[in-house]
Amino acid sequence: MAITQLSALLENTPGTLYQAVSTISDAGINLRALSVADTRDFGILRVIVSDVEKTKEVLSDSTICTETKVIAAKMSDQAGALKKILAVIQETGVNIEYVYAFTSPVAGSAYVVLRVDDVEGAEEVLARRGIETLTDQDLEGLL
Amino acid sequence: MSNYYQKEIETASREEILKIQNEKIVKQVKHVYENVPYYRNLMDQKGVKPEDIQSVDDIKKLPFLTKDDLREAYPYGLLGTDLKNCVRIQSTSGTTGKRVVAFYTQHDVDIWEECCARAIMAAGGTSDDVCQVSYGYGLFTGGPGLNGGSHKVGCLTLPMSSGNTDRQLQFMMDLNATILCCTPSYAAYLGESLAERGYKPEDNKLKAGIFGAEPWTEEMRRSIEKSLGIKAYDIYGLTETSGPGVSFECEEQTGMHINEDHFYAEIIDPKTGEVLPEGSKGELVFTSLDKEGFPLLRYRTKDICILSRKKCSCGRTHVKMTKPLGRSDDMMIIRGVNVFPSQIEAVLLKEGYTPNYQIVVDRVNNTDTFDIYVEYSPEQFSDKIAVVQAQEKALNGAMRSMLGIGPKIHLVAPKTITRSEGKAVRVIDKRKLHD
Predict the structure, then answer these.
(1) Would you say B358 and B424 are in contact if contact means Cβ atoms under 8 Å apart?
(2) Residue B72 belongs to what domain range?
(3) Which CATH class is domain A69-142?
(4) Which of A56, B7, B37, B345 is 20 to 30 A off residue B158, Cα-Cα?
(5) Which CATH number goes with the domain that contains B367?
(6) How far apart are CA B149 and CA B263, in angstroms?
(7) Which chain A residues are Cβ-neighbours of B386 within 8 angstroms?
(8) A132 close to A91: Cβ distance less than 8 angstroms
């Protein structure tokens, strides 16, 4: 369950994000979603891609690249959709580390990516409440 | 006319000093040979007997001692007398694992304090002065040394120790301190702090400062002199030989007179160990001439400097040394603390990091900045910001407990640290302390 996100460490200098994204696109990999966080000394690039292994391979030449399991929960494109998902998570007491979103090729829906401290627990609760979450296989179909 | 603590010896002729040194070295070598098995072994290995040393000219036959010897012999291996005869222990600031500990008999403490008294009087000190000692007190030799010297001169001594700037300034102003003893960076900081509180340089009663324990420049001297309205004097020493006061500046401010009746100085080629003629630049080596507790023969300081016997206008005849012009090893002095890159490497490996690091030292507003950049390894890398911050904090703590001062830690991406011809540049010192 859950999906695989890749996190890569980027030097905090001009041009490094471009370099990383170029490397991914030059390898013919499609970027489904992307988020960048920054610390004082470096940036962390988080991506969801069509080919995890290949992305890891091409990025590892220039930086550290690690896999992280994240939840991608489906939401409808209407007011209150994210609130509904977060309310479920909040009830369980699971802590959210970070969050970002991407749209689905299916019209009218989007996905929220959640990095939580208890992936299995969160997924179980979401499933119980009828909220759809993606697996790596689902992702392949989407991309 | 200069101000002396022991005029007769401080202005003695070259012949008289040599006579004293020759008498003392024979006794000192005999004392070491009989009481310090560690050094006796070194002498035996080199085939040198105490009888071979009849004058200071023979010192070059003796084996060298290095900091490695001191670590190996830790704690009692170089002790020169029974512990029951010793009255004091001092230690060096933050060094790897085993620190250097030095032992003093009352006689050793007296000599040390006399040397400091000479420095205070060379800076114009008399029994009318109020001497504010703002070096750290404790295992560090700065505070105890100048404190003792100040007593010997008869100054009213203010044993402030370091830190607590508000109290430092309050006592300096309220109790009319006339002489300030501390590290040059702290003196600069006190000068700035006074200005921030609206005081002008002429508002304080200070006339002189005795500053040492870290490298400082001529430019920094002028700036301290201006901000405090004083004349600033340099002082040199190391725990291994006693502490501050091994050499000190007079009013000429053109080098530090070495107390030659207690310490014999040589300049050697750091690579070959060969003794170099006067005026050559090389590594400074000290031989104690009359120590009991911790007598060291031919101790290599790793400080690079030049000796000069040029006549000094102050009337002192003892040889002068330049400020250290560099190091023959990779030791840095940061905020008065000795730091070796090898210590930093040891901490990184112990904490599970790569040994790919870079130390950046700079001086901003007269205070040293100390940053360490460390490359992440895949095992450590976390994509959670909170984890990154916790890692940096933990590494800072580990460094602080090893070094005695805490660097700012920067965890960075792999292969981002500057490499020169494939070799990582470990240290970037932007302070420009040496010409």
Answers:
(1) yes
(2) 7-329
(3) alpha beta
(4) B7
(5) 3.30.300.30
(6) 17
(7) 97
(8) no
C-beta atoms of B411 and A41 within 8 A: yes
Per-residue confidence in pLDDT tens, chain B, 435 aa: 689 999 999 999 999 999 999 999 999 999 999 999 999 999 999 999 999 999 999 999 999 999 999 989 999 999 999 999 999 999 986 545 567 899 999 999 999 999 999 999 999 999 999 999 999 999 999 999 999 999 999 999 999 999 899 999 999 999 999 999 999 988 988 998 999 999 999 999 999 999 998 888 888 899 899 999 999 999 999 999 999 999 999 999 999 999 999 999 999 999 999 999 999 999 999 999 999 999 999 999 999 999 999 999 999 999 999 999 888 888 888 988 888 888 888 889 888 887 888 999 998 887 899 999 998 888 888 888 888 889 999 999 999 988 888 999 998 887 778 765 556 678 899 987 765
**ipTM for this prediction:** 0.75
Residue B2 lies in a domain: no
| Residues B368, B303 share a domain | no
Counted domains in chain B? 2
**Quick one: B290 and B362 in the same domain?**
no
Alpha-carbon distance B66 to nearest alpha carbon in chain A (angstroms): 39
How far is the C-alpha of B49 from the C-alpha of B34, rounded, in Å?
11
Residue A128 forms contact with B (CB below 8 Å): no
DSSP secondary structure of B2-45: ---SSHHHHT--HHHHHHHHHHHHHHHHHHHHHH-HHHHHHHHH
Partners of A97 on chain B (C-beta within 8 Å) are 384, 386
Contact indicator for A73, A114 with CB cutoff of 8 Å: yes
